[in-house]
Specification:
7-stranded mixed beta sheet, about 290 residues
């Protein structure tokens, strides 16, 4: 049995909290517009850093996966997500940490098995649009890179009847996107914050802005989500162990926050439908589909 062929978007994210930072707005917007929203979380987030000192206790560290499950449940409720799914892997931790070697981690997972799991979900939910991270995994996290590898491969494999025949009837998604944070736009917002005497990542002389951002000329799609900022902020606020209240995401002044967070950016990688010329940015991940 499969889900009917309604408009659907499926996003593959690595950890609880990733869903709201780069895609919370589109999840809330498309859900409100009646598009089926399917969120896939690859790992439990066990290796996440608890950033609030009073919460950073041995007890909370021991049950961090459970806590992050609760935070994620809170987040998806605010975003109106229709289906929350898991790939079932353990958090691999940051690059070059001992957790990378854990045999249960996503980093150590058999790539063919990870691909099969994603293909199975695609064939069941039948999305027209897939979203995941770029080839760097956004900022180099092993789990983000593993999401990229599995999802890009699944975009093709899901429509191939010879691949994983036990995983359901073939289904070919029509568009594939990577999340993006345009470098110049984010840098400009941080500069405004510095001028107002507010802390920003730029205060750290060792901070590498290129690691966490995308060259502006790679961005193909900018989706307005101004009307859904309350839902996005509420979802971010759910992840109390992972995002400090004074973080740029939650402490940014309304005027800057509305400009920066009022849109979400993407790189269109594949499209089986007509798309705008490269000189024109799309404003809808479903452009050409509705």
């Amino acid at each position: 049995m499969t889900v009917t062929d309604e408009l659907c978007i499926l996003l593959v994210h690595a950890h609880p909290d990733d869903e709201c930072l780069s895609t919370g707005g589109v999840l809330a917007r498309y859900s409100a517009e009646g598009i089926r929203t399917v969120l896939v979380i690859a790992t439990g987030g066990e290796e996440g850093e608890i950033v609030v000192p009073e919460l950073d206790t041995p007890e909370n560290k021991a049950r961090l996966k459970e806590i992050r499950d609760e935070e994620l449940a809170c987040s998806v409720q605010h975003l109106g997500v229709d289906a929350l799914l898991r790939l079932g892997y353990r958090d691999s931790g940051m690059v070059d940490t001992p957790a990378n070697a854990n045999p249960a981690s996503f980093h150590q997972a058999d790539k063919e098995e990870a691909l099969r799991r994603v293909v199975t979900l695609i064939r069941h939910h039948r999305p027209q649009v897939l979203v995941t991270y770029d080839e760097r995994g956004g900022y180099g996290h092993p789990d983000h890179i593993a999401c990229h590898v599995a999802t890009v491969a699944a975009f093709e494999a899901a429509g191939d009847a010879t691949r994983f025949p036990e995983a359901g009837a073939p289904w070919q998604p029509l568009k594939l996107y990577y999340t993006a944070f345009p470098r110049q736009e984010i840098y400009r917002a941080w500069e405004i914050m510095r001028e107002r005497g507010m802390p920003t990542p730029l205060d750290d002389p060792e901070f590498d802005v290129t690691r966490f951002t995308t060259p502006d000329d790679r961005v193909t799609t900018t989706v307005p989500i101004h009307a859904y900022l309350p839902q996005k902020r509420a979802a971010i606020d759910c992840h109390v162990t992972q995002i400090r209240k004074d973080s740029p995401f939650l402490s940014m002044p309304e005027d800057i926050g509305s400009e920066l967070f009022g849109v979400e950016h993407f790189i269109r990688v594949e499209s089986r439908v007509a798309v705008p010329s490269s000189a024109v940015r799309e404003d809808d991940l479903f452009a050409g589909l509705r």
